[in-house]
Fold this sequence. Notes:
Shape: globular
Helix content: over 70%
Number of strands: 0
Strand content: under 5%
Amino acid sequence: RYRTLAILxxxxxxxIILRPGIQIIQPAALVVLFATFCFASTYVFTRxxxxxxxxxxxxxxxxxxxxxxxxxxSLPSWNYPTLESWPWILLIGLTGLGSHFCFxxxxxxxxxxxxxxxxxxxxxxxxxxxxxIYNESWDMMIFLGGIIIFSGxxxxxxxxxxxxxx
Length: 166
């Protein structure tokens, strides 16, 4: 019951931040929707594989699937990276690899209903980084959505602690 509430609060917070329906749907939004479906599928497959495979094996298969898809998607606008961009590319690659490792490891030790709401925190954190580094504007809807997502996480964490003590 608490896990469902946490997931619903996380989803509600995301919807408040994204505000679907206020703007005309752009073609890029459809790509994002498809990517969201693919990411949700990754949750399912990672959780299934975490029962029998190591996090490194899961990362290998994730990259095996994602690399060709990313390569094909980049072809229409491909530019060769400059020498100055290689350290950033390496940094993004390493942090992505670390993220996938933590993601696979989390599913090995916790249920998807516990891991998913924590992942929802990514959106308000991205907004915070956008504000701090790129001087993007914040509005009350981003703040409200972030508070709702954070509240869902607190409910989830406290409920999980309560159930593990029993």
